[in-house]
Amino acid sequence: MTEALLTYPGHIIATLRCRTDVVLEADEQGRQFPRRVGLKTEQREGIERDFSLTASLLADHTLIVTKALSPDLAGRVIPLPGKSFGEEIAAWLNTGQEVESIASLMDRAVSEETTFEQLRDLRATVHARRLDGAPMLTPTGTVTSLGDLIDARGRAALAAQHTEAA
């Protein structure tokens, strides 16, 4: 499911469950009071690295941006984030440049006219965009990943070239 989310051709806002613990803290008068703290996401190890922006929402509804590829958003602390913060994120997301859609990459991968050299270049593009594991169906209906399909098509195209040369 993670691969499906990461290869979706649009923007996704997701929430991750986080393990919490209760710690005792002292207030100004020295009285102890319990406070919940987040420890670690309960997803695949290191999943935070796959997202362009991650943040923690505290019990008092303060949002702390823990990672952002945008320097304007990185490290921000936003009490009661609302519509304006969402608009900032949307504006940042919409400043990126257009990239070839995953559907188009898949169409190129299954096209009978795609040469070995084109498949090699396509494989490099797919790898650079971290789409190797993008789930897809082959033309025969078999479940595979985009990277595996390109590899198989590349091997077949290379074998065909060697057969033609012989």
Question: Outline of this structure?
Answer:
This protein is α+β, with helices and mostly antiparallel strands and 166 residues long.
Q: Can you give a write-up of this model?
A:
The structure is a single chain. By secondary structure, the chain is α+β, with helices and mostly antiparallel strands. Helices cover 35% and strands 24% of the residues. The protein has five helices and seven strands, in the order αβββββαααββα. It has a three-stranded antiparallel β-sheet, with no helix packed on it. A hairpin with a 5-residue loop joins β6 (135-137) and β7. α3 (102-110) packs parallel to α5 (146-165) and α4 (116-128) packs antiparallel against α5 (146-165). The protein starts with a helix and ends with a helix.
Helix vs. strand class:
alpha+beta
List the helices and strands in order: HEEEEEHHHEEH
Helical coverage, percent range: 25-40%
Number of helices: 5
Quaternary assembly: single chain
User: How many strands in all?
Assistant: 7
Give the strand order of the largest sheet, numbering strands 1, 2, ... along the chain.
Answer: 3-4-5
Strand content: 15-25%
